[in-house]
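sry for the spam today, last one i promise. struct tokens for design, 395 residues
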């Protein structure tokens, strides 16, 4: 094995690392003592020659993703320990052996000390998505560790990184099974059934991060007319119906998504006409909705993928929320979300504030929502907090 390349930071640029922030931006680097290849382990030092950490190098804006702030070997046992920690946190949350929920996030990147990757768990199937080439190069070690940590529980491992690796690597990557084989999976979330297709579905097949918000929605649904906007697999729709909704409409611009939502409703409930899937654009649909709704869920895709799109994103949230706030019935409940990492909680709330003010309606915040505990955020890496939600009572 070749020597580990040493990287020295510019004076003052060591501060964030001393506070355990796991990213080194390329502009912070003063000198590289060698030419690391993408994915190589490098050692990072301050300008005073103090060892700061070891991580994966990548020729990109985030040049190093730190794996350890102490000088230890990043190998098989390192990955095993981190995976074991991640699994025991989920066991602590009651997710690993739960009888009514067998879908959760097993590894949440920086939040679990494994930057550059996530693993979603679907009743024995682990779907891995790699964001960094360094983690991807260590895939075999991670698979080995995962098998050891999960033992007999694990039936399938699928690497779905074609769309998440940096473009120059992603285009060469073909999504593949590293254990087990193709197949559809039925999972349970708080006792509700969902059919998962990780190969064709968005992300890893399901939006696991809305589990607790969906559960809350059920409490507001009894006897209500519910609109699940941006419904995808119908996650919120199933919970609304479980909570006693009189009628549920799932709207999504994707025809496939609407079909999935219909299918998941049928998995759980008799086909009695209380659910309808509608394939339509959100903004257009809200201009002339089919019904007057008591409860509306707005869970759009990330409007801002980058900070430079922030202004447009905030305008988008404002416009969308305004349309919903204008139409919702008196004493209505609005569940509204943003999953854009670039949009702060404060900025999101300001957009919803501006939308409310424009409608002139009385609006009260009942709950402030966030990602669930199986999507932990490292306190040193606030960027890991991406999901924000508000539950509003609209008079
Ligand atoms: N609420 C879902 C996740 C939503 S993901 C859940 O709990 O699982 C965002 C969804 O918005 C996707 O399914 C996508 O097809 C849909 N979408 C994107 N743009 C849209 C638009 N302009 N109008 C309606 N749906 C849209």
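last one done:
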């Amino acid at each position: 094995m070749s020597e580990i390349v040493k990287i020295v930071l510019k004076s003052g640029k060591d501060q964030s690392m001393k506070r355990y922030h796991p990213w080194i931006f390329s502009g912070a680097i003063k000198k590289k003592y060698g030419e690391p290849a993408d994915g190589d382990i490098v050692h990072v030092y301050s300008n005073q020659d103090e060892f700061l950490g070891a991580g994966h190098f990548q020729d990109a804006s985030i040049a190093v993703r730190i794996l350890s702030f102490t000088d230890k070997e990043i190998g098989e046992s390192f990955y095993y320990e981190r995976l074991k920690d991640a699994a025991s946190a989920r066991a602590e949350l009651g997710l690993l052996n739960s009888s009514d929920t067998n879908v959760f996030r097993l590894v949440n990147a920086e939040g679990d000390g494994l930057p550059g990757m996530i693993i979603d768990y679907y009743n024995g199937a682990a779907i891995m998505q790699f964001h960094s080439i360094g983690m991807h190069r260590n895939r075999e070690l991670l698979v080995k560790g995962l098998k050891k940590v999960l033992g007999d529980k694990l039936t399938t491992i699928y690497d779905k990184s074609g769309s998440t690796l940096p473009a120059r690597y992603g285009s060469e990557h073909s999504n593949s099974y590293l254990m087990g084989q193709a197949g559809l999976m039925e999972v349970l979330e708080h006792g509700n059934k969902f059919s998962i297709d990780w190969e064709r579905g968005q992300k890893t097949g399901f939006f696991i991060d809305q589990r607790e918000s969906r559960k809350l929605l059920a409490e507001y649904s009894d006897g209500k007319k519910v609109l699940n906007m941006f419904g995808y697999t119908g996650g919120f729709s199933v919970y609304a119906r479980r909570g006693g909704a009189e009628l549920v409409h799932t709207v999504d611009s994707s025809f496939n998504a609407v079909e999935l939502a219909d299918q998941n409703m049928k998995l759980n409930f008799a086909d009695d006409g209380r659910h309808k899937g509608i394939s339509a654009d959100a903004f257009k649909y809200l201009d002339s909705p089919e019904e007057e709704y008591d409860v509306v869920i707005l869970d759009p895709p990330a409007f801002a993928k980058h900070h430079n799109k922030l202004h447009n994103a905030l305008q988008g949230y404002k416009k969308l929320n305004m349309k919903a706030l204008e139409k919702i019935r008196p004493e209505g409940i609005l569940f509204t979300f943003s999953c854009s990492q670039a949009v702060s909680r404060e900025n999101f709330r300001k957009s919803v504030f501006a939308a409310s003010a424009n409608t002139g309606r009385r609006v009260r915040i009942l709950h402030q929502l966030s990602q669930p505990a199986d999507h932990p955020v490292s306190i040193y890496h606030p960027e890991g907090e991406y999901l924000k939600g508000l539950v509003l009572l609209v008079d």
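The CA atoms of residues 25 and 357 lie 40 Å apart. ok im logging off now
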